[in-house]
């Protein structure tokens, strides 16, 4: 029998048990990306900014942090709309294929409504104003560094 093998195996086992520490680390990264997206989003009334949140969960043996919003206009801000959005969607995710309406549509512009003008105008859309995708893309290296450092720290604590 090899002397110290049981202690060595116990340390190896404890090293594999860092799930709680990594859950906390992934959750902190999710909070960071959420906060960055909130800083980047264009603000009119502030409803979209307030709706940006994150959820961290264990899923199929992985820890996943999802940045999300339940705002009805979030996607239109992120990707733009109509011919204007199709012509100007720099900064959006290259992994998302968006189909834009190529026709103008009638809409009411609230600031133009008067006693004599109903504010109805043809609308050609709006340019993309990405805030979610850049929040993850621009922080990817920092997030990876944090996850690596937190994993190393957790392993070192377990081995002590």
The largest sheet is: 2 strands, antiparallel
Which whole number gives the mean pLDDT? Answer: 90
Classification by helices and strands: alpha+beta
**Strand order, largest beta sheet:** 1-2
Gross morphology: elongated
* Tally of strands: 4
Tally the helices: what do you get?
Answer: 7
Strand content: 5-15%
What's the N-to-C terminus distance?
Answer: 23 Å
Order of helices and strands: HHHEEHHEEHH
Helix content: 40-55%
Low-confidence stretches: none
Radius of gyration: 24 Å
Describe this structure in words.
48% of the residues lie in helices and 14% in strands. With 160 residues, it is an alpha+beta fold. It has two domains: 98 residues, no CATH class; 48 residues, no CATH class. The longest helix has 22 residues.
């Amino acid at each position: 029998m090899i002397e110290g093998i049981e202690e060595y195996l116990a340390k190896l086992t404890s090293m594999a048990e860092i799930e709680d520490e990594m859950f906390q680390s992934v959750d902190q990264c999710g909070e960071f990306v959420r906060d960055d997206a909130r800083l980047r989003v264009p603000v009119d009334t502030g409803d979209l900014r307030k709706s940006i949140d994150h959820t961290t969960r264990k899923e199929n043996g992985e820890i996943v942090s999802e940045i999300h919003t339940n705002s009805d206009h979030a996607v239109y801000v992120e990707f733009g709309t109509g011919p204007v959005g199709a012509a100007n969607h720099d900064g959006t995710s290259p992994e998302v294929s968006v189909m834009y309406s190529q026709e103008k549509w009638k809409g009411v512009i609230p600031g133009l409504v008067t006693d004599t003008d109903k504010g109805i105008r043809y609308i050609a859309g709006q340019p993309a104003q990405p805030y979610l995708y850049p929040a993850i893309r621009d922080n990817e290296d920092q997030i990876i560094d944090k996850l690596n450092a937190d994993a190393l720290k957790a392993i070192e604590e377990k081995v002590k």
